[in-house]
Amino acid sequence: MSDRQLSTPMAEPTELPAPLASPRRFGVAVRPPHYGWNGEHFISDRLVAVDRTSVEGLPGCVEIVNEGDFVGVVADSLSAAKDAARHLQLEWRAPSAAGQGDAAPLPATTEAASRELSAGHAEAASVHRHEYGWPSRLRWGDAPGWVVADCSGQRLMLWAETITPETLIQDLQTLTGLPAEQIELYGNTPARVSGLGRHCGDDAAVDAAVMSRHLGCPVAVWLDAAYNRDVHALGQAQRITLSADLAKSGDIADYRYHQAHASGNIAAVGLWLCGRQPTRRTEAGETPSFSPYAFSNAQLTTRRDDHGTGRHSEDLAEIQQAFARESFLDEVAHDSGQDPLALRLRHLDDARGVELIALVSQRARWGEALPSAVAKSPDRMRGRGFAYSQLPDRHQRIPEGVRSAWIADVEVNRITGDVTLTRLVVGQDAGPEVDTERLQQTLQTRVLGSARPLLGRNPAFDEWGDGSDHTRHVESTTGGALATRTDMPTKENAYGEATTSLPQTLDDVNLAPGVAVIANALFDATGVRFRQPPFTAGRVRQALQDQANPFQEEAPGRPTKRPRRRWLKAAALTAVAGTAVMAWPWKGAIAPINRPAANLYSAETIERGRLVAAAGDCAACHTAEGGRENAGGRAFETPFGTLYSTNLTPDERTGIGRWSYAAFERAMRHGISRDGKHLYPAFPYTAFAKISDADMQALYAYLMAQPAVSAERPANALNFPFNFRPLMAGWNALYHAPSSFEPDPGQSDLYNRGAYLAEGLGHCSACHTPRNIIGAERKGEHSLAGAMVDGWEAPPLNRLSSSPIPWSEASLYDYLRHGASSLHGAASGPMAPVVAGLGELPEYDVRALAHYVAVQMGAPAGDSETVRADAAARIATAQSGPIDMEEGERLFEGACAGCHMNSGAPSFTSAQTTLALNTNLHSQHPDNVIQSILGGVHADHVPGLGNMPGFADSFSDSQVVTLTAYLRARFAPDQAPWRNIESRVKTIRQHNNSPSYTPEATTRRG
Amino acid sequence: MTEAISLTVNGRSYELAIPPDTPLLTVLRNDLELNGPKYGCGLGECGACSVLIDGMAARACVLPVSVAVGHEILTLEGLASEGRLDPVQSAFIEAQAAQCGYCLNGMIISVRALLNHTPRPSSAQLQSALEYNLCRCGTHVEILEAANRAVAINAAESPEAPHE
């Protein structure tokens, strides 16, 4: 996995775990020039001599550890140890020919047998044979980190980075001979394990343990991308060969499956080098293995060996088996022009399995063409894959076992090779006792947890936290970390008979098809077959480049090309018809529930929900002036009449206390209230549809955990015909596409996070995009082109920005984080509460928003010298006003200049940005200037941001007009004078004086 | 809604329970009974309400008290130290620069803020610094004379102060 190496800068070692505070000893393992696993044996150069004098006199109290072919260098600091390792002279010799001779190519006998077998079936229409592999190490690790071993006497303590603690403990037992209970494992072991196999954290741990054991003191080893060498050296751990004869009918007549090892676990490199890992004894016998499918003639064998016991090894073997089998069936189906799902159903002799697959394919709309990505970008390819498995239950009974059917949609960026899992539908039938909700939760965390290493990518847009510990954060967040819908049509769910059950049921989550489903979808998208994981951007990119190259070596390690089959075309017609019908469905009330208990959700989920609510700024609209938070009742004047926001507190009568999650989600994504009534799009469900499932659930959890407030809201006062709610169904059909957020794989994680926040939760476009005559946001070039909202101008956030000094990403960040930018001015009006809400968010999220907006504006990262010089020139020009506007000048000098001009004496209350750079004064519309003069500027809750008093009560209309014209002439001399100030002042005064308008606290001053 | 607010005024700490958006001036005059700063226009126009915050002039009538939390507030009452008047106060007394005297708090505070930043200002700089402090009695000549005198006394009392 060289991607990791490229994308993660080589972080410098930082804090050590506490136990190594003293004495500090640091180790580096020196590997032989040649070593590796050849599929059957570990082979390495043999150590002949160690020249200890070569490191004498080097600083750091250097010690050499040597056992067998293992060499370690230990010193007082990591740099001293690395330095000594470079200087250390070692003599190696190539392994003996005899040793190599042991490594017979393993599947030879079976291959010969298969050929004979298939030769006997002369009537077969075609013969298919493929080999699938599994790497010994999927990657070097998740993030650079310390691994510390303290091996003294009869005890081994290890602070490790491992995802396979059970197998690591097995290795450590082999190394030390200690019983398992005397080995203590601490540290960054994730609570859940991806189940996809080991990474080099285990190799580093064994290196540390060997060195600590020899020296009798704790030794720290630094795990980083340097361990990639072990990834390459250990190569392939598992090889599975499959072949099938296909009858003319398309049925598989003869099916053969051969697995090279019972388990695919390869011991840590250090263990092999020490000579402590016993050579694997492969017994001559073969054990039959299980397939969920029924074939007229099948031969399934697995070579027996004496390694890899334990639950974890079984899990891994199951995933490997399902990967090979499901990839193979997919290949056979494509090669013979059949629907991969139909081929499987023909060979599935199991009513429960058939029913489950039918449910999942229906839910995922299997057979309908995927929306083409070409319109968006020709460099993006989409594909869909299917995989299925059936595993024994926890009593090893196969008929009662867990059936699991998966359909995944992926999007592949042809240029970068990035693979995005865009949708995942998983159906699981785990027998009679199933807790659907917990099953779904487990799937979500474990599935998405394993998808990440598989794709080697941080799906970052849906993450909450500071960007600084990005890589770690994915591992620790629960919930969807990908752009994914995890739907769960279990049998129980479908029949509405979900029952609660014992926690052990969670073990029954069947992840086996997870790898195959991605490989199959990848093939559908790209026409390239990956016969070995992982599917990292680097490998995908390479494979796509090789696609043009006709010389392909067909080996499991290398992806191979297949012509794309277009069996989907026939189904496309039905899909179009289906969509047309779907536009008018779906009203009806969702049954009320009893309010969920406050302790139903974890503190972590509720905290995430709090951040979601802050980013979405629910309270800004759902809190009336002086009212309780989120209790609703705030008035909104729209061109169609006055609307009042609803009560979001969990009050059972007036709030959302009796809303189920399904009802809440429908309202958020589709604008339909629990009782089936349509909501008006003043509530920006058009944006909220993009909120990820995990965020939506957290938001529900947060809102339900807040105190209930009983508050009736005033009835809406809409003009005919807009007071007729069912009209909204037509509006929705025309203007609402409830699609989930799709990150742009061509953009960075920072951009996608910003886009997710801005387009979904943050609903920026609700104010900043102009609406058409019936209140729908306009598209294309009009997106974020600025609009009038509630008497204020929401300025353009695209290239139409009228800011006198062009915005930069740095200025946008200042504005969004601190409420003001020194080159642009301060947030006020409806934007002030938005900035206050953003104050709750981590720095990374605000940076992401600034980055996203900067890209929309085509803004540079920082402010250049030219820009600063322009700013200085504008300030100089505005030092004096126009000579013919004396009345305006008098008003300005008397009322404004005390704070808005620099008198030379330092002032705490002066405006931070000179009016010469103020965006509002340079806009086409005078509205924000008039609003500011009349109502002042208030940004309560934004720390450090000052207040400007409103002058509505001290200036007459004509004074406001005079002052506004003067400000425009003095501070925006390059702009044409405003023509409509008089009428705007009148309108805004009327609007602000209307009983429904509650300006931000004009009453509190004085 | 009231909140717990901690303020540091003239070197003393105060714990108050008040709405955070109350103007600082109201708190100083009503709660702390410091009546040096005056209520004039209430819109930040005239400067009669000025106080020093971290050594800078601030118009207390437009400043929500929450914004002043964590800063050093100095009112006219706190200018004198160890029984000695501030040089600016002495200068205004010596020059008898008052008619009604309502604006004097702001004049003194503004000159003090300027001297903190510019110990040897020119007459033009003094005039500019006082430009946005309004006086309705027309005492401008005396006030400017007092300000010039303050510069001289200040220089004599702190001769080592760096030149501009």
TrEMBL record, chain A:
<keyword id="KW-0349">Heme</keyword>
<dbReference type="InterPro" id="IPR037165">
    <property type="entry name" value="AldOxase/xan_DH_Mopterin-bd_sf"/>
</dbReference>
<dbReference type="InterPro" id="IPR036856">
    <property type="entry name" value="Ald_Oxase/Xan_DH_a/b_sf"/>
</dbReference>
<protein>
    <submittedName>
        <fullName>C-type cytochrome</fullName>
    </submittedName>
</protein>
<dbReference type="Pfam" id="PF00034">
    <property type="entry name" value="Cytochrom_C"/>
</dbReference>
<dbReference type="Pfam" id="PF13442">
    <property type="entry name" value="Cytochrome_CBB3"/>
</dbReference>
<dbReference type="InterPro" id="IPR051459">
    <property type="entry name" value="Cytochrome_c-type_DH"/>
</dbReference>
<dbReference type="InterPro" id="IPR009056">
    <property type="entry name" value="Cyt_c-like_dom"/>
</dbReference>
<feature type="region of interest" description="Disordered">
    <location>
        <begin position="458"/>
        <end position="484"/>
    </location>
</feature>
<feature type="domain" description="Cytochrome c">
    <location>
        <begin position="749"/>
        <end position="857"/>
    </location>
</feature>
<keyword id="KW-0479">Metal-binding</keyword>
<dbReference type="InterPro" id="IPR036909">
    <property type="entry name" value="Cyt_c-like_dom_sf"/>
</dbReference>
<keyword id="KW-0408">Iron</keyword>
<feature type="region of interest" description="Disordered">
    <location>
        <begin position="1"/>
        <end position="20"/>
    </location>
</feature>
<feature type="domain" description="Cytochrome c">
    <location>
        <begin position="604"/>
        <end position="707"/>
    </location>
</feature>
<feature type="domain" description="Cytochrome c">
    <location>
        <begin position="883"/>
        <end position="971"/>
    </location>
</feature>
UniProtKB/TrEMBL annotation, chain B:
<dbReference type="InterPro" id="IPR006058">
    <property type="entry name" value="2Fe2S_fd_BS"/>
</dbReference>
<dbReference type="Pfam" id="PF01799">
    <property type="entry name" value="Fer2_2"/>
</dbReference>
<dbReference type="InterPro" id="IPR001041">
    <property type="entry name" value="2Fe-2S_ferredoxin-type"/>
</dbReference>
<keyword id="KW-0001">2Fe-2S</keyword>
<keyword id="KW-0408">Iron</keyword>
<dbReference type="InterPro" id="IPR012675">
    <property type="entry name" value="Beta-grasp_dom_sf"/>
</dbReference>
<dbReference type="Pfam" id="PF00111">
    <property type="entry name" value="Fer2"/>
</dbReference>
<dbReference type="InterPro" id="IPR036884">
    <property type="entry name" value="2Fe-2S-bd_dom_sf"/>
</dbReference>
<keyword id="KW-0411">Iron-sulfur</keyword>
<keyword id="KW-0560">Oxidoreductase</keyword>
<feature type="domain" description="2Fe-2S ferredoxin-type">
    <location>
        <begin position="3"/>
        <end position="79"/>
    </location>
</feature>
<keyword id="KW-0479">Metal-binding</keyword>
<protein>
    <submittedName>
        <fullName>(2Fe-2S)-binding protein</fullName>
    </submittedName>
</protein>
<dbReference type="InterPro" id="IPR036010">
    <property type="entry name" value="2Fe-2S_ferredoxin-like_sf"/>
</dbReference>
<dbReference type="InterPro" id="IPR051452">
    <property type="entry name" value="Diverse_Oxidoreductases"/>
</dbReference>
<dbReference type="InterPro" id="IPR002888">
    <property type="entry name" value="2Fe-2S-bd"/>
</dbReference>
